[in-house]
Amino acid sequence: MLEKALIKELINFHNHSFTIIDKQENVIYWSDRAAEIFGMSNEYVIGKKITEVFREEHLVMLESLRDNKTIVKKQHKATNNIYVDIKSMPILIDGEVEGAIVSEVNVTEQKRQKEQIETLKNKVSVLSDNMKQLKNGNFRNIIYKSSVIEHVKTRIEKAAKTNANILITGETGVGKELFAKSIHDTSDVSGEFIPINCGAIPSHLFESELFGYEKGAFTGANREGNKGKIELAEGGTLFLDEMGDMPLDMQVKFLRVLQEKQYFKLGGNKEKSADFRLVSATNRKIADLLASDDFRSDLLYRINVVNIHIPPLRERPDDIESLFFYYLYSLSEKYGTDVKYANQQLINHLKAYHWPGNVRELINVIERLVIFSNEEALNNEIFDQYLTEVGEDAKQATLPSVTEELELKDYVEKIEADYIRHVLEENGQNVERASKALGISRPTLYAKVKRFGL
Q1: Whether the Cβ atoms of residue 88 and residue 61 lie closer than 8 Å to each other
Q2: How far apart are CA 217 and CA 220, in angstroms?
Q3: φ, ψ for residue 265 (rounded to 5)?
């Protein structure tokens, strides 16, 4: 009796949990701390086979018992929410294995804090990079980390030094106007940056909006007349967004402006000179515009002297994290809330999503996270709900779950293989595009494809 009482006091004396099984794999001791960690009472566990309580593949102490081994594992996943550091040893009597003992210490909080520290370190690094970019006056608000946007930036710097007409292409939501503004800021022009969205102006108002009008030009006109966008852009940059939506009759008139550098105001009879830098943008492909009956090819050739293509967000996953933290900070400030912690799982899921709405869609998702996350950490379920809402959850790249048998290097390789497979699928198995999206050379990608059997 004294021996049992002593053992009971000893196994409950330390902050660690202890479990002891005999040679037949029956639980003979179960500490109070073990009951607390696993939520199972002594009465329920003691006397049962350990395999009745836990799945056999999760029981490292069976290896100690069966193979006479001492096993140490860090951050073993004890339950769905609890991680423990674990040490398992065989119990030897006269050189024979007669049982096994395992001790565990709950390290869930330490693991969470470590994740927070790593994320915060990464956040500080990302925000530091962002601040450096924001201090660059010519590329304000263009947040990036990828080499593909660095290449775009280089092209802009070269093109901006010339007077050539520039056409920016890219999907909706990539931020074409920001890049157009950076062209203006990098240029030597002294005038203003004047944007006009060709798809947002009714066709019957387009001419007066672009060319302006003289007083009394039409019923309801401003008595003093009105300056058009061309006049406002004098000595500066005229930015025609969604150029592909310009009405066909206006295309003829605008082509003349580009050729003659002259135009008439609506209702006017005095020819005015046109002096502006032209930057246009469209979300339509060049080939589609050329094949279209509603866009003049001669105008396209005139505006597309230099083409600047902005790749979609899915082709530059490195930028997602930088954009995420930048807008997380700015939107938290907008709503007057503390900047909440984002765990690595959320970051990984954001990187894996293919973002059909590009940066604009990412900003909307971040705004949801900021508004509806009530705890100190962002609520991952909000993004999961969003994916279900837009019917895209099946397209999420799934990261491998952690198991005790998977060593770190194997886990990292599995993540790498799954992500390469995802990027290849998103780029239609095109190795050249996939290698650019991954930021590696084609030979390196070929080698990885062969290595992982993709």
Answers
A1: yes
A2: 9
A3: -70, 155
DSSP 8-state assignment for residue 274: -
What is the DSSP secondary structure assignment for residue 136, as one 8-state letter?
S
pLDDT tens for each residue of 26-61 = 998 888 888 887 788 888 889 999 988 888 877 888
Residue 9 domain-assigned (yes or no): yes
Residue 369 contacts residue 146 (beta carbons within 8 Å): no
Single-letter residue type at 192: E
Q: Measure the CA–CA gap between 223 and 226, rounded to whole angstroms.
A: 9
- Indicate if 50 and 183 belong to the same structural domain: no
Residues comprising the chain, all counted: 454
Q: Specify the 3-state DSSP secondary structure of 156.
A: helix
56, 90, 106 - which closes a domain: 106
Predicted confidence (pLDDT) per residue in 181-218, tens digit = 999 999 989 999 999 999 999 988 899 899 998 876 56
Q: Are residues 172 and 90 in the same domain?
A: no
Q: What is the pTM of this model?
A: 0.62
List Cβ neighbours of 45 (8 Å cut-off, separation of 6 or more): 27, 30, 34, 35, 53
Residue 127: pLDDT over 80: no
**For residue 177, what are the domain limits?**
147-313
Is residue 286 in some structural domain?
yes
- DSSP E strands in 55-158: the ranges are 71-77, 83-93, 96-106
- DSSP type of residue 284: S
Q: How many domains does the chain have?
A: 4
CB 320 within 8 A of CB 144: no
Q: Give yes or no for a contact between 244 and 282, defined as CB atoms under 8 angstroms apart.
A: yes
For residue 349, which amino acid is it? H
Residues 6+ apart with CB under 8 A from 313: 173, 174, 319, 320, 323, 355, 358, 359, 362
Mean pLDDT taken over the chain:
83
d(Cα 303, Cα 319) in Å, to the nearest integer?
29
